[in-house]
What we know:
Layout: E1 2-8, E2 20-27, H1 32-42, E3 47-50, E4 56-58, E5 62-69, E6 74-79, E7 83-89, H2 94-103, E8 128-129, E9 132-133, E10 138-145, E11 151-155, E12 176-186, H3 196-201, H4 211-225, E13 234-237, E14 243-244, H5 246-255, E15 261-263, E16 269-271, H6 273-279, E17 286-287, E18 290-292, E19 299-302, H7 308-326, E20 335-337
Amino acid sequence: MQRFTDVDLSxxxxxxxxxxxxxxxxxxxxxxxxxxxxxxxxxxxxxLVLGGGSNVVFxxxxxxxxxxxxxxxxxxxxxDDAARLVRAAxxxxxxxxxxxxxxxGWGGLENLAAxxxxxxxxxxxxxGAYGLEVGERIAWVEGVERDTGLAWRxxxxxxxxxxxxxxxxARESAFMVITxxxxxxxxxxxxxxxxxxxxxxxxxxGQDVSPAEVYxxxxxxxxxxxxxxxxxxxVGSFFKNPVVSPEVAERLAAHHPExxxxxxxxxxxxxxxxxxxxRCGLKGVREGGAAVHERQALVLCNAGGAKGxxxxxxxxxxxxxxxxxxxxxxxxxxxxVGCEGVVQPLA
Length: 347
Ligand SMILES: Cc1cc2nc3c(=O)[nH]c(=O)nc-3n(C[C@H](O)[C@H](O)[C@H](O)COP(=O)(O)OP(=O)(O)OC[C@H]3O[C@@H](n4cnc5c(N)ncnc54)[C@H](O)[C@@H]3O)c2cc1C
């Protein structure tokens, strides 16, 4: 376990805003969990678990301990004719893990190519992209209770997975830590190509597309569409796509026929937040060093020297403008962290 005090967190998050933490622990092996518990008991303070820091916004200095999960390890647990069970430690970089699976010829996760962050964080907001949510591929999640060190294991059905949420993001983020995730990768499922960008890319090829080809296509499309956080700090989408009732969607469609809408299996309708933000003329708009990205309106980025408070001010401005124009309230996607810990929802 590595321990640092009075740490600048800007290098530990993809947004790169300055914020100090009283202490940072980096857990590199399973036994470090016990060392962390000893440290908690010796010096209690607010705590935040961190993976790759790609979905966290520090709004100010954090008067506590940041605990970064950096444990590694991945293995094939079992396989039969229908599926493979593959387990990875929480600290494994997500994209490296997906690439490793694809390189073994194991399909199932390739639609989630090139998403920053760690394996341990993917269940937290049920990471999703290009027509797949990771919860569909999770067999179970393992972890420990922070206070007691008690180990637990939850099957996917008990993880409360929903659109960009789970029980770990909502109710239990303060006392559960995820230590490993086991994925069930189907062996006989056709590639998931229903997302429009992928449909276009593979038009005419039917099912004859390999996981490696899907991985490469998704990675290439993402690189073209999304700003690279190493070049311009960001946390991906800053807002969730709002989900509304069919009545609200119809009312909106009457006034804005081009508003992209996606019917969900439960009858509700998902609306494109980026389209609404763009229609409000907010692309490129700034508050301090935080800016709405020029090409991708759903992304707020660090245009240089941004502070956490700039992102808060910009997020509020975007949310109020969209609410005035469309009557729809946008929800922030990343985790907002104040002085004492998580402060969501955005007030
Ligand atoms: C360029 C870019 C593109 C992105 N694209 C997508 C996308 O397509 N789809 C998508 O869903 N997300 C996307 N994201 C958001 C982000 O990458 C994911 O949410 C990712 O899973 C976060 O992983 P992380 O390790 O960086 O988590 P962090 O940002 O470190 O943490 C996020 C939350 O998870 C908690 N957490 C982290 N690890 C653990 C653990 N082991 N146990 C318990 N809690 C934990 C943290 O406390 C925090 O609340 C994108 C981000 C960027 C920068």
